[in-house]
Amino acid sequence: MNSNFVFILTAFALTALVVAVVVWSLLRKQQTQTQSQDKANAKIYQRQLWELEKEHTQGVVSSASFERSRAELLGRMLEDSALTEANSDKKPERAWVSAMVMVVLLPVAAMATYMWLGQPQGLDRQMVASEPSDNYANLDGMAASLAQKLETNPGNSEQWIMLGRTYRALSQFEKALSAYQKALELGQSDDIALERAEVLALLRGGDFSGEPWAVIRQVLAKNARHFNGLVLAGSASYAQEDYAKAIQYWQQARSQLDDNAQAVKGLDDAMSKAREKAGEAALATKGPSSLPSSAQTSGAMLSGRVSIDPGVKAQLAPTDVVFVYATPTNGQKMPLAIVRKTADQLPFDFVLDDSTAMNSSNKLSSHTKVTLKVRISKSGEAMTRSGDWMGVLDNVAVGSRHVKLVVNQQAP
After folding, report:
1. Which residues of 150-189 are buried (b: 16+ CB within 10 A; e: fewer)?
2. Comparing C-alpha atoms, which of 355, 363, 350 is closest to residue 401?
3. Largest alpha-carbon pair distance within the chain?
């Protein structure tokens, strides 16, 4: 069956379903509560925006995906606000008229309009991907409209907040700061103060020093368990490469959530990435280890020899740094034990045990099997980079002797 025809049938079915739900809602005899619904919608959008911004700051969401998602979310928020204002004066007793219009006209008009003006070939993914998005153009127009409304009604703090978020989505950070400030002048809010602090840090290129950190500390001083304050404090610490502090703040925020909460995965991923960064940073400062004593090597240890193909060695400089380390088999990247040497010492013997541990609470002796790795860094940086020469042995039993670890592959 033609894919475009299937799409049209599916769209018609979904339209009918939506119309049925809307009609049922319109014909229900309930007192309308527009104002309370507006506030509920605003809270939902605010929460979604906050979580999206946190994931971007934590590195979970790429900048391109973040900007696109934020633009779409703000667009929906502004459109919902406009629709609510337009419908707020309608009388409830006229709901049946709207219901009949939807039942008769909406499906027909939608299908007719699409068949007349639509482009079924737009279903082709490559063509869709090649078309420029006008989300930002729409947001720009919406921001201008909202700013015009606020000129006549400057006392609406929620609209100032919405305008600030819209300017932020457009990367117009100075205008966003001004809008947030107007909202705060109308009513103090710790959450909005935190949003403004984050925008100020973005304006400074990710620098949270000074006022942004002062705001975060002020909020946490009033409430040490303030969720958004803890999340932003973690993001600020991460931006300053204080990964231990970032993990601490995020863990405090994580402890307040149920395991099935929407923000759990983002926080867990952020903490995992911070732990990885902390481990890689520690690699760069870990010096060469001396051989452990007989008491230390009598139990949990790994020993062997690192070798390298002559052709590969010819591509190395004598000062290139060689890291030999063991990591847990569960995929965690924080090394359990590590030694550091230079390429001019290849091939060389190595010994890993608890005396070369990275973390006293997670030692080699607490594991039965590990992943054994060797990596050569030209820059001496701890972070793995494309082109680094390396070697890996999986599921190596702790206590193994005479392990042969060969540098034989390059990082992609």
Report:
1. beeeeebbebbbbbbbbbbbbebbebbbebbebbbeeeee
2. 350
3. 89
Which residues are within 8 A (CB) of 86 and not within 5 positions of it... i.e. 6 or more apart?
A: none
pTM of the model: 0.44
User: How far is the C-alpha of 367 from the C-alpha of 381, rounded, in Å?
Assistant: 27
Cβ neighbours for 22, distance < 8 A, ≥ 6 positions apart: 99, 102
Do the strands 369-377 and 321-328 form a parallel or antiparallel pair, or are they unpaired?
A: antiparallel
Q: Which domains does the chain have, with CATH numbers?
A: 288-410 (2.60.40.1120)
Number of helical (H) and strand (E) elements in the chain, helices listed first: 15, 8
**CB hemisphere CA count around 292 (13 angstroms):** 21
Task: Scan for tokens 């010096």, then name that residue.
Answer: 287
| pLDDT value at residue 62 | 63
Beta-carbon neighbour count of residue 334 at 10 Å?
19
Q: What are the pLDDT digits (tens) for 286-321?
A: 444 433 343 343 457 888 999 987 778 888 888 888
Q: How many CA atoms lie within 13 A of 205 on its CB side?
A: 0
Which DSSP symbol is given to 384? -
Contacts of range 66-74, beta carbons closer than 8 Å, 24 or more positions apart: 67/169, 67/171, 68/133, 68/135, 70/168, 70/169, 71/133, 71/135, 71/136, 71/139, 71/169, 72/135, 73/45, 73/48, 73/49, 74/49, 74/139, 74/142, 74/165, 74/166, 74/169
